[in-house]
Design a protein that fits this description.
six-stranded antiparallel β-sheet; seven-stranded antiparallel β-sheet; alpha+beta; 7 helices; 301 residues
Length: 301
């Protein structure tokens, strides 16, 4: 596999950045994940980080180096993340549970499959035109699609990870990519400020390391002091000889090789499933990372 990838997240006008994103890959498969912790509930950033780590850990276990069934993997990973968020809330004795959106995509054998829950989006563009975009699990999006009267606030979601009810999610069919296709995962801080046509125009004809910062900066400027967190993770499925500094080639990786930008604890290779002990190890790392981050922020003030 050969692709270019770039990711960027900015806090905007919020006191805390509750968005999380990252990617990991083997020689034959790649996973891209973005989560937006939901305000109005406690520990949104922790819910988002739990989601990323659980999905990444599941990928590390199942991609050997290919996933047998990308759609099944994505469904299993999302539900595992949801259950772990609930487990975290129960262990903390929380009256309200942390909640997050999730969008994730798998690339292998020149094809893409994705899943999403909430209003974090995936955009797939080709030659400046939109191939596909996820549809938000929000009342405003439901109104657009069905024409049924619903609450007008675009921020009102009817599903997410971490809620008491089982999350509603959509999984795509597996579809073939063409060389040069652009795939972008983003939080609502981006699309809430920029229209689809503006997003596509900024992406068209540019390297991923160029258009991602342009998108983030434009959204922040448009929203001003009231800007939400803005997070973008994007890739370009490249032609064999079209390389740039952000390019990745997995051709030289070993069968069991694994690379990741998502911090995660070690997994016992003898484990067939993502068990509680493996998950708890990753959650302990989350809590320690958050504690260190809080200390650094306190030292700066």
């Amino acid at each position: 596999m050969k692709f270019s990838v770039f990711q960027l997240s900015r806090r905007g006008g919020r006191a805390l950045n509750e968005d999380r994103m990252g990617y990991c890959y083997t020689r034959e498969a790649a996973l891209f994940v973005l989560a937006d912790g939901m305000g109005g509930h406690p520990d949104g950033e922790i819910a988002a980080q739990i989601a990323l780590q659980v999905v990444s850990l599941h990928f590390q276990q199942k991609a050997k180096p290919l996933l047998a069934d990308p759609r099944l993997f994505l469904e299993e990973a999302l539900l595992l993340a949801h259950r772990q968020i609930l487990r975290y809330a129960g262990a903390k004795g929380m009256m309200d549970t942390p909640r997050t959106t999730l969008v994730a995509a798998v690339l292998q054998e020149g094809k893409i499959t994705w899943i999403h829950c909430g209003d974090s989006r995936l955009y797939w563009a080709r030659d400046g035109q939109l191939v596909e975009r996820t549809r938000d699990h929000s009342y405003s999006e439901m109104r657009k699609v069905s024409g049924v009267l619903t609450p007008s606030n675009r921020n009102v979601l009817f599903t997410c990870l971490g809620s008491p009810s089982k999350p509603i999610f959509d999984v795509s069919e597996t579809k073939r990519l063409e060389e040069g296709d652009q795939v972008m995962l983003c939080s609502d801080g981006l699309w809430g400020s920029l229209s689809n046509s503006e997003i596509l125009k900024l992406m068209h004809g540019k390297a991923v390391a160029h258009f991602v910062p342009m998108l983030v900066d434009t959204a922040l400027k448009r929203a001003g002091d009231s800007s939400d967190n803005v997070t973008v993770l994007a890739l370009v499925w490249e032609t064999p000889n079209n390389f740039e500094p952000s390019s990745i080639s997995t051709l030289e990786m070993e069968d069991q090789g694994f690379e990741s930008t998502i911090q995660a604890g070690p997994i016992d290779e003898s484990e067939d499933e993502l068990d509680d002990e493996a998950i708890e190890r990753s959650i302990a790392e989350i809590n320690e990372a958050i504690r260190r981050s809080a200390e650094r922020q306190k030292a700066k003030t």
